[in-house]
Give the backbone structure.
Amino acid sequence: MAILKRWSIVLTTALFAACGGGGGGSAVRPGAGSTAQNANGEGAGRVETTPGTSSAPVYTAAAYPANWTTTGTVTPPSETSVVTTYQDGYVTTTQDGTSSKPFLQTTLAGLATPITDPNANVSTTTTNYNLSWGTPDKNGPAFAAMFPSAAAQAQLGVLHLMGRSITSYASSSLGPTINKPSADVLAAWNSGWTGAGKNITLLDSYANIASCDDTAGTNNECHGLHTMLITGLIAPYANLSGLDLNLNSVGKAGNTGSDLSTPVNTHVINMSLGFTPCNNGCGGSPTSADFSTLTSTSSGWNNNVVALLNTTSNGFNISNMVNAVVVKSAGNAYQDAKYDTTTAALVANASIASRLLIVGALDRNGTTASKANIDTLIGTTRYYSNYAGTNAAISDRFVFAYGRDPYSSYSVAFNGKGSPVGQGTSFSAPVVAGYAAVVMQKFPNLDAIKTSSIILDTARYDTLTCFPTCDPTVWGRGEASLSRALAPVGRLR
């Protein structure tokens, strides 16, 4: 009997590991007709077992009471535990959503009705994701209500970014008329996911923001206002700050443009910039000489940015950059994204590469009924967005998003000057930066690596014109999907 007891412990460990279970007692019990034999098959030596039967988790959806935006409280979803019952009646809990017994992705995704919003720890084959909910923002539904369902646009109040006013071109006392956000964004706001409590830093053009004048087109002085406006319309209750791309001015608060007096702990960094061998949809590969020259001339700045993104604190009063999601525009040369030397420098740094998202530009927010394509320059049929390319380190971190200003030409004024519609990967990147902040608000236990992984793993091809034969060297992981990123189980690695 002593020998059988020791062997039973060994078998317990092996069988339990195969079932993906946790603790709670021996999971091995001899079944009916089990035999014990010696090594020669003649007596004692082997225990035969009958596997247990596991229950399926039962999901209870989140409850949003009618008054949750005032005094009510949202109840997050819940799931019953997975228990395994053995032939002798022994019952053990194998998955309960805690960090020690997380739900297996295959368990939740394999149900007839998959559980995609578990409010619990969920484990893939390699990673444990704590998908416990944060607190929904009570302001979300009111912001969504500013865009009536029947209208394609809505006039907002006067906006203030970096100390500048964004108004209607018709009147400085009226706010801008903005295109309705995608259905995914409106759904997120209506559920209270607005990016509240998260800090987004935009590395862009802010040093000359006071002289921003868009009458001749989107110039460098106005560029930072465009990107800040776009990410603010995805994550309207996130805190925004701007850092000038020349790295010679301190970080500034997004609403006033005043210098940051105390450190801001950033969660997401948007970089709508880079160095490409050509611009505005030139297409093709650069010559070796051109690419070598660009790599050399841009190396100093790229090295400085890599160092900055790996800081815990810096002279700009923007802290925690080393732990923030980094979102980078792919570039506008209609070529392999590997030729953007800033992108190449970021993916070559292991600390940054694991939390990096590279974003190409689409001509619309894609849906299964109205699929999106790589954007073309307005008034032409010429593509401009860089594509994922042949470097797997880049294409595996590459997604697409809508790449145009969210308003009609000259309907919006910056500093009283009418602005034409801008377009480019500079404007698709801040969309995804907003997505990252919204995801981090809903799942506050996720770090930058896991947040970026969820956005990559929940991107989709079925909203793109290439579907169902999308080439990853062109389309990367597909179109970033906020709705899927907010309900990620079943699509995680």
